[in-house]
Known about the structure:
- The complex is a heterodimer.
- Chain A has helices at about 10-15, 25-40, 90-95, 140-145, 165-170, 205-215, 250, 260-275, 285-305, 325-335, 340-350, 355-380, 405, 415-420, 445-460; strands spanning about 45, 60-65, 100-105, 155-160, 175, 195-200, 245, 275-280, 385, 425-430, 435-440.
- Chain A is globular and about 70 Å long.
- By secondary structure, chain A is an alpha/beta fold.
- Chain B has 15 helices and 14 strands.
- In chain B, helix 2 packs antiparallel against helix 3, helix 6 packs across helix 8 (about 340-355) and helix 12 crosses helix 15.
- Chains A and B meet through helix 9 of A and loops of B.
Amino acid sequence: MIDTLRVTVEDALGLIERSEITPAELHRAYLDAAAERNDELNAYLCTVEDGAEGANSVPIALKDVVSTKGVETTAGSRILAGYRPVFDATVAARCKEAGLSLLGKTNMDEFAMGSSTENSAYGPTRNPWDPRRVPGGSSGGSTAAVAAGLAPWALGSDTGGSIKQPAALCGVVGLRPTYGTVSRYGIVAFASSLDQIGPVAKTVRDCARLYGIVAGRDPCDTTTVELTEPVELPEADDLKGLRIGVPTELNEAEGIEPGVTEQIARALELAGELGAEIGECHLPRSVEFGLPCYYLVAPSEASSNLARYDGVRYGLRSDPNGDVRAMYDRTRHDGFGDEPKRRIMLGTYALSAGYYEAFYGQAQKVRTVIREEHAAAFEQFDVLVSPTSPTVAFELGTRTADPLAMYAADVLTIPSNLAGLPGLSIPCGLSDGLPVGLQLIGRQFSENLLFRAGHALEQALAFDFVPKRYR
Amino acid sequence: MSDRWEPVIGLEIHVHLKTRTKMFCRCPVAYFEPPNTQTCPVCLALPGSLPVPNRKAIEWTVRLGLALDCRIAERAIFHRKNYFYPDNPKGYQISQYDEPLCVDGRVLVPGPDGDDEVGIVRAHLEEDAAKTVHVGGAEGRIHGAESSLVDFNRAGTPLVEIVTAPDLRSPEAAKRFLQLLRQTVVELGISDAEMEKGSLRFDVNVSVRPEGSDELRTRTELKNMNSFNFAAKGIEREIRRQVEIYEGGGEVEQETLHFDPGNEAAPPLRSKEEAQDYRYLPEPDLVPLEPDRELVEQLRGELPESPSTRIRRLEGEVGFALAEGLVTSERDELYSRIPGDRTAVANVVMNELAATGVDPAAVNADELGKVIERRDVIPRSAFAEAVASSASPSFVASAFLSEAAISDVSELDPVIDQILGANEEQVAAYRGGKEGLLGFFVGQVMKETGGKANPKVVNERLREKLNA
């Protein structure tokens, strides 16, 4: 028997190579763990019993935003209940080609709109470190599954922080890649200019390995590009020559818990000991305008992307015998939860004639300012560091009544997302017994550098990724 | 129509490109296949599907833009036009908005009294909608229908939209422009541009203003035009309607009118208050189009001679009407190949030959030229036969020239006298001024001689005898 809580992908690959376990047995082990713990956590929306057929490597869990041929894909929404794609998303196909078997589809905030996975139409996911708390979101199902040993690794999607923030809250590693490096073909769209697929794993090396499998140009997604250099698995234990910038506004933002600040400070101290040069920098406008800018861009695109759920071709259809307008209204009324409805309304308003320039147009200009401000910081530094989330995992229900409080959970991840930059979140310690995430932001296409820095820090920090209650 | 009013007409033309595959996916463009067989995740808008632009469609739009003397944008953007309708699977149509591929063009439309210059505001690329069929209910519209069926075979097929400036001043000028544009598109090889098949559709914007004024008054939009002639008729009717409104002291309302050729009144589709807000959004799933400048210049160099230029060139030989007819019926190439008297050749090409349905490209021009040259001295029936078989591989002129027409006066005169004697009433009428009756007498003589009389000689002799 293997300990799915403890074993990394790298370990598992070694076991397979030495014939100590077969891919099918490995697949089974994770399904057994899911059978044991998923009732409590609700990390999986569905599991695939016969997923290991033809597999020759380790299994994987995919966020329910990834189209999987023949396997129900709902994006956490009632409007897609029962929808079985006739095609695989490019990332799902690449996982298959790499011999990875599909364990199941993970829970998420509906259409990836949320920061706690409480917005799922299929019930919230719970944090493996403390089931009274949220796992973060929207990829909370993926990060909880990895943290709880229900999957060795997983894919998530990140629009405003939906990989980095739940990775932080669950004590695992998550990468939001540079926009355009991973195909979005077959990914249920939320905000097209921001959506990116990325890996979730227990270690930085596993994360890099999975990124290597899914990244690269896809002819089906014209916004993708070829990687400028092959993905390297990080080896070095030191940070010699690395210039780390600490943006004041991201590290002293309102609402950052003292326990979080403390763990980041300890990690930075370690980074200095490993040879990094550390200096202060500033991203004033990115942090001040990031959140409002995001909440114009993302809902605007979402209002358009979610228009296809009209009951005509697939998914839910309510009031099938009424007038077509009545059918639309009823279907969308019944099919969408509160958060998608809220964002569709925001976006529809922002794109309306006479408001476009003031809202969407203005937000695009702000986005340029944010991009430039980050570019300026990267003239002096190789990576920027901040907390991933201002807080550790919060209790279920504490923010659902207050959308703005929920939106604030992404205040530290949104600015670099708007700039299209890659970000890696690694666990860097505990505060009140709950994981704290450290965010490393890099230049476009600098994933290899983020992996190198993340790996060296990970070694030095020696964080134990197994939730205490399972040890 | 009152002389004091000047019509102001602009056109919006949609042309289906005949690319092998659709605009944003690899499904075949095929209109007559069983419903919903030419579809894929992209054109059905399944979750997560993404558009990939058709390179050929972009290239062809650039070619059309160049033919319309447009500037080809250095950078063009696709936009999403958002609206809900069952034929619009994504809930938005991918189109172009404020940064189209081709802008600021102009077309010279040759007319009998000089050229009309028509500005081309833009030519842009977009995708077509699916086809809906509404079962039950009135008027075949969705509201009130018992059920609706959607066929997505057409969804996502490439369309070019061409918008003219309001530069046209008469229904005839509009028709002339449309014919010329159609011919241009066909010659570029980018579309069949057949109205019956729906591969060419257009809407017309019409307003009127007092003669001499340069104001632009409220316009109405005429939709669903299904032929150039109906369009000219519809425009004329709309001009009359607007003039009547103004002369009655009223105001024209901005509205869209659904043209029904069988019905005198054009019922309004929607008025201004119901105007849609399409919430245009730059398509985030596509990167900007940046046409390669070298390719653009190469395409410019490869443009064929334009129909307008050809009309002007042929006008000197055969007059405007025949020149225009030859070019817009795609018969000018055949005309140029046939040797002989230009006007005679042009007339035969436009009349007798056109009536036979013979493929102009297959006609043996040199042999047909010989027949045309001897047209007056062979029987009419032999001439007709020769024209009808001019595209046959075995066609030779000599086979039709051996039989001479009856030109001998001594042979024709008795027949003519007999006809005149038998039709005294008509003779009296002719002599009383009804000279149009000459054709009647010619016809009778031809009938009597089994089509073998030389019509020229018959004409001469008849005139002589009738005017004696």
